[in-house]
Amino acid sequence: MTRRRWIAEHWDEATATLTGAQAEHLTRVLRAQPGMEADVVAGGHVFHAELAAIAEDEARFNLIAELKAAPALPVTLVMAVFKFDHMEWGIEKATELGIAAIAPVITRRTEKHLAQAAAKRVERWRRIAHEASQQSRRSDVPVIHDPVALAERIRAASNANRIVLAEQERSTTLRRAMEELMAASGEEMPEFELAIGPEGGWAPNEEALFDANAWRAVTLGPRILRAETAAISAMAVVASFLE
Ligand code: SAM
After folding, report:
1. CB of 226 shorter than 6 A to ligand 1
2. Predicted model pTM
3. Is residue 215 located within the same domain as residue 158?
4. What is the pLDDT of residues 155-181, one digit of tens each?
């Protein structure tokens, strides 16, 4: 039987502790008792563990043995803030696909009320990423950055290969760009940033800024995809080169 996986908030060499909603779920919903076995992620390592003590607000596991774990893919999704329900779906799916980080950005065509509400939404996005990580049996939770203005992210220093998904691009497909970038990379695993625009797409000055800062524009094909579909498709293509 596959053991449930939990991501601990606190740990030391021998134990790991879940608190808050996770501990509550264990006591109230699962009615967990000491002795229950689980896989517990502590500091990016996965352990076979056994529940040692449980109370309403705290569950302490003894760590029995470390298990093999797959690391996150070295990909950051630079995601325009768009309709929250669609965006949350994108965050959940990108987490399942193994993304390392998500950087929400406020773009010219991000709706005003969403831009204003974005900062308060980050905790919810982090919770979604945490739950999706547990569900998909990841050994870590993707980092969800605080939202920043797009220009700040475009100009930020980075060692990653920077790719912008642009529906106007006609010649370079993401697949072709990945083939070239992988061929050019040395022995070390290359890192990637993938930028996805909002429902209204990138504004012309944003496209120019990407271009001026050496982001490579690519297409996912002739059809216009919803932003969240574009994010997941792009992630799947990149993952196929990295796994
Ligand atoms: N401006 C478009 C329009 O209204 O016709 C829609 C933009 S699309 C819904 C949102 C984002 O998804 C785009 O900014 C781009 O990053 C990405 N995207 C959608 N379809 C794409 C494609 N075929 N190739 C590359 N990126 C795409």
Report:
1. yes
2. 0.85
3. yes
4. 999 999 999 999 888 899 999 999 999
